[in-house]
Write a structure and sequence with these properties.
Strand 2 and strand 3 form a beta hairpin. The chain has 128 residues and is an alpha+beta fold. It folds into two domains: 35 residues; 80 residues, Sandwich (Immunoglobulin-like), CATH 2.60.40.10. The strands form two sheets. It has a four-stranded antiparallel sheet with strand order 3-2-5-6, with no helix packed on it. It has two helices and seven strands, in the order ααβββββββ. Helices cover 27% and strands 39% of the residues.
């Protein structure tokens, strides 16, 4: 009789474990999360640029194009970027001025891209 009780307890534990897994999967689905989201990793690009400018961070691979305003301290940060290679461009009054074409974004790290512009202004687009 002890063997049948132990088998029933094991089956009951297995059923409870399976129900718990189904519940977690349901919660994740309701929140819009998939297994791919769980494995997603990101990084950021940050640096200095002229006051009043905008920094454009783009990646054709991920179809990402973000415009980041430069703050009053001359700094910008583009966060939550999937790891990969990005083009980082400083734009002033709608005109691209200086470009860094191959900025690598690493997992949980920042890639610093500073734009050195004489007198706070950039004068021409850098060559690739």
């Amino acid at each position: 009789m002890n063997a049948s009780i132990s088998t029933q307890s094991g089956a009951r534990r297995s059923t409870v474990r399976n129900l718990a897994l189904v519940a977690v999967a349901g919660i994740c689905a309701a929140a819009g999360l998939t297994p791919a989201h769980a494995a997603e990793t990101t990084g950021r690009v940050f640096g200095r640029a002229p006051l009043g400018a905008t920094v454009l961070v783009s990646s054709p691979e991920f179809a990402i194009q973000r415009e980041i305003p430069v703050n009053a301290d001359g700094r910008y940060v583009a966060s939550w970027l999937p790891i990969g290679v990005y083009e980082v461009t400083v734009v002033d009054h709608g005109q691209p001025l200086v470009r860094h074409p191959s900025v690598q974004v690493f997992v949980d790290r920042g890639s610093r891209v500073d734009f050195s512009c004489a007198s706070g202004r950039c004068s021409e687009l850098a060559a690739n």
